[in-house]
From TrEMBL:
Protein's name according to its UniProt entry: Purine catabolism regulatory protein
Family recorded in the similarity comment: Belongs to the CdaR family.
Pfam families associated with the record: GGDEF_2, HTH_30, PucR
All copies of domain GGDEF, residue ranges: 171-304
Organism listed in the record: Clostridium chromiireducens
Gene: pucR_4
Length: 410
């Protein structure tokens, strides 16, 4: 529901402006307005850009230096502004072809504003349009936030209420959560201790997600929660491939544009009653939890594919899980503690690799004879035969139970 530049240019204030370049960028999202005339060195303006602004330039501090103007425009583009408006008059008499060619190459919309039109007049209804759109979005976000996280059920026809905010959620839907992988570790690794920088990182992430979904013609209600962006998707068999492409694009853009950050995506099951939306949300959260437990990142997991974890996650009392783990694996736990060995680790990898000796040896950097010795020792201590499927399943359940216990303790 964000306001786009192509919507803004239909406002009354734009009737006196002329688009001179960058037409292909009119789908960009507009967040605010910035007048770049506050510094003697105009390049200092770049430090005050957060992305999504329409930037006004009179040229007073540029003093006819076209090379400086080019550098400024390139800097604004790197900051992902929505568009640029240059005041034509005593400082910039006309926009040179070099500048028009530059904005065309950057897909950055550039407008001319006649000198006799005051910037305050030109910006007045732009401010109003942005403010009204934000008010509308705030109401929409509040409704969907209450729908997802509210303690009480919302009254009335929820489908009609969703439609009031422009979203058709009749039929089947599911919840998607896009979550920053281990955000605290990312902050530590990048030596980030400034709250404003953390806010800027999260803002950039949200903008990537919103813009990418919009560019793939996916209109969905979006809610922010801590380090996550949540959206509700009405199932459309004709568009599911487009959604998959958009999600892959989001993961790549985040990694490329936000210094090594990765995101993972949890997907809940499908429902056709909005009163069940919290169930889909919970399932998406559990899918993300499974990703964390497995030590994975930069991936997408649907709740329906988490296997036996559906059952294990439902057991809130970790004492039962811990008892099951110790009853099944106590002999090799004690053996590892006494001998400083790695039988538990070996067993876990062996089962993950479907009891394949070759791939297990490669993952553990072990000679096959050494692996065979360890497997024989495990079978001896546990009195099991790892060639029997039912015994492997029991042991795998115990190992997975321990992962859940460790995750809850952390």
């Amino acid at each position: 529901m964000s306001i786009l530049l192509k919507d803004v240019i239909n406002l009354e204030s734009f009737k006196n402006m002329r688009l001179v370049g960058g037409r292909s960028g009119l789908d960009k999202t507009v967040n605010w307005i910035y007048v770049a005339e506050c510094f003697e060195n105009p390049l200092e303006s770049l430090n005050w850009i957060y992305g999504g602004e329409i930037v006004f330039i009179t040229g007073r501090s540029i003093k006819g230096d076209i090379n400086l103007l080019s550098r400024l425009i390139e800097g604004f583009n790197e900051k992902n502004i929505a568009g640029l408006i240059i005041n034509i008059g005593p400082y910039i008499k006309q926009i040179p072809k070099k500048i028009i060619d530059l904005v065309n190459s950057l897909n950055l919309p550039l407008f001319e504003l006649p000198w006799e039109i005051r910037i305050t007049e030109a910006t007045k209804d732009i401010y109003t349009a942005i403010a009204m759109k934000r008010l509308q979005e705030d109401s929409s976000v509040n409704f969907f936030h209450q729908l997802l996280f509210g303690d009480e059920k919302l009254g009335g026809n929820l489908i009609d209420k969703a439609a009031y905010f422009g979203y058709n959620l009749s039929g089947e839907y599911r919840v998607y959560i896009i979550d920053i992988d281990n955000f605290q570790k990312y902050i530590k690794d990048n030596n980030i201790d400034d709250e404003s920088i953390i806010f800027e990182v999260k803002t950039k992430l949200k903008k990537i997600i919103r813009d990418t979904l919009y560019n793939h013609s996916i209109e969905v209600p979006i809610v922010d929660k801590n380090d996550s962006v949540i959206f509700i998707y009405k199932l459309n068999k004709n568009k599911i491939k487009v959604l998959d492409e958009a999600l892959d694009k989001i993961k790549k853009l985040v990694s490329n544009q936000i210094g090594g950050m990765t995101v993972s995506i949890g997907v809940g099951d499908c429902y056709n009653d909005l009163n069940m939306i919290k169930d889909s949300l919970k399932e998406a959260q559990l899918a993300l939890k499974k990703i964390t437990i497995d030590g994975l990142k930069d991936c997408i997991l649907e709740y329906k594919n988490i296997g036996v974890y559906q059952m294990l996650f439902s057991l809130e009392d970790t004492r039962n899980l811990n008892k099951y783990y110790e009853d099944k694996l106590r002999p090799i736990i004690e053996y590892d503690n006494i001998n400083n060995s790695k039988l538990i680790e070996t067993l876990e990898v062996y089962l993950d690799e479907n009891c394949n000796n070759t791939s297990t040896s490669e993952r553990l950097f072990l000679h096959r004879n050494s692996l065979r010795y360890r497997i024989n020792k495990i079978e001896e201590l546990l009195d099991v035969d790892l060639r029997k499927l039912n015994q492997c399943i029991d042991i795998k359940l115990a190992i997975d139970a321990k992962k859940i216990i460790s995750n809850k303790e952390n």
